[in-house]
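Quick one:
INPUT:
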């Protein structure tokens, strides 16, 4: 993807200029990512003596959690753990050992948000064994699985889980298994030059207060990492689907599935497995926010059109929650993405007899071939259950998403070999509404349709 048009670049730059000036940010860097590359980068303010560049480091806070989660999912894919395992199976001695790994990843464990002791983000951390000794039953704030409750402590536990399985600390696992393969060489657990200094901005005066920065030790998996706009752009591309050899695409898609909703009835924000989720302007975004004393960062990616946006700022507070979605809106207004060109697909010609209209009772559906031996079932009147299916070796199809995810679709043939109907987990789909010649459970009234 080529860089954005000059008019688009101007509109994007103006949005971050308004943000930096209006929110009084010492510096602000932002980028738009398309098809795995930076299509626009902009910066305002000063990080030290110079304007931020694509190589300037900022602390990215809780974006760290997503990287830890990827290593956990790699362990799952390797068969070393199950997401339904209680964490006590892997970290004996925890007072909430019944909480599952999936609940820790999705912030539905019910654990307290912060660890016991002093404000962990502003004080030197402690080894995991010391942290473990401070934990008691009181760290359980809610019944596991009952509700979304963000827990930094939960990711401290996940970091220890990674360390015990890899035989090295969590940071080494993240570096070797994620950062190096993705080419994110400027992403580190401690700052390196050139980097921004973290500040608090006085609420009633234009003056700054430097914020402390420490190694968080046992709590580091919740927010230790520093990164650059260039590296975070690569991470946005990863979340959008450019996984390289780091993670199976199906596993990343699983991480992006909603596991919890974090804004109640509004239902616009949620959490998957280590990834925050948002629905804005017709887009379904995945990524994460980050906040540590002196720093704010966010990265969002839209897998549907391989677009990402990100920002990094060296201020404890102040960045608008809509900054990145505003940048996406600018992009959509100035350079709406063109739909992909239609081209014929390679399909198995023997499956053509399956394609076309089918009826679940009186409700019309369309079964389409989507390439290879894959199928797509969609209601024709937009009322019903849609799912995609992938072929199995036994001649049946397995549901990939929607209501029929994990369920089996099987063509049923008559003794002479002709196609009779489809059996979808006991539901019968026929070529005509309630076809009397098909094996419809309960039978079809012999007098047929009537006025």
């Amino acid at each position: 993807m080529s860089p954005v048009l000059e008019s688009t670049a101007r509109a994007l730059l103006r949005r971050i200029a308004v943000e930096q000036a209006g929110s009084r940010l010492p510096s602000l860097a932002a980028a738009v990512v398309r098809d795995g590359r930076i299509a626009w980068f902009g910066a305002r303010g000063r990080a030290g003596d110079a304007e931020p560049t694509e190589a300037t480091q900022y602390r990215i806070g809780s974006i760290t959690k997503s990287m830890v989660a990827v290593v956990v999912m790699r362990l799952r894919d390797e068969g070393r753990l199950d997401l339904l395992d209680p964490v006590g199976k892997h970290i004996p001695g925890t007072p909430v050992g019944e909480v599952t790994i999936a609940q820790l990843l999705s912030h539905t464990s019910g654990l307290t948000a912060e660890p016991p002791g002093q404000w962990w983000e502003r004080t030197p951390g402690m080894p995991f064994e010391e942290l473990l000794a401070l934990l008691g039953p009181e760290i359980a704030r809610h019944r596991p699985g009952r509700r979304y409750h963000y827990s930094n402590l939960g990711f401290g536990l996940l970091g220890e889980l990674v360390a015990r399985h890899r035989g090295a600390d969590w940071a080494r696992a993240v570096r070797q298994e994620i950062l190096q393969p993705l080419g994110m060489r400027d992403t580190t657990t401690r700052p390196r030059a050139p980097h921004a200094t973290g500040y608090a901005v006085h609420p009633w005066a234009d003056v700054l207060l430097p914020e402390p920065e420490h190694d968080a030790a046992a709590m580091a998996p919740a927010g230790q990492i520093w990164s650059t706009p260039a590296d975070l752009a690569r991470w946005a591309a990863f979340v959008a689907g450019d996984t390289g050899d780091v993670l199976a695409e199906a596993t990343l898609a699983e991480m992006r599935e909603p596991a919890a909703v974090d804004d109640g009835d509004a239902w616009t924000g949620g959490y998957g497995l280590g990834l925050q989720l948002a629905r804005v302007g017709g887009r379904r975004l995945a990524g994460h926010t980050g906040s540590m004393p002196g720093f704010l960062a966010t990265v969002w990616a839209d897998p549907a059109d391989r677009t990402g946006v990100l920002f990094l700022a060296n201020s404890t507070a102040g960045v608008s929650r809509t900054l990145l979605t505003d940048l996406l809106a600018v992009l959509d207004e100035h350079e709406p993405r063109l739909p992909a060109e239609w081209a014929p697909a390679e399909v198995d010609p023997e499956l053509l007899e399956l394609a076309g209209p089918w009826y679940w009772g009186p409700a019309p559906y369309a079964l389409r071939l989507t390439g290879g031996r894959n199928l797509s079932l969609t209601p024709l009147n937009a009322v019903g259950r849609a799912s995609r299916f992938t072929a199995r070796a036994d001649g049946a199809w397995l549901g990939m998403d929607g209501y029929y995810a994990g369920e089996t679709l099987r063509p049923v043939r008559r003794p002479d070999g002709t196609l009779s109907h489809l059996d979808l987990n006991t539901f019968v789909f026929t070529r005509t509404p309630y076809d009397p010649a098909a094996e419809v459970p309960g039978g079809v009234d012999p007098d047929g349709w009537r006025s």
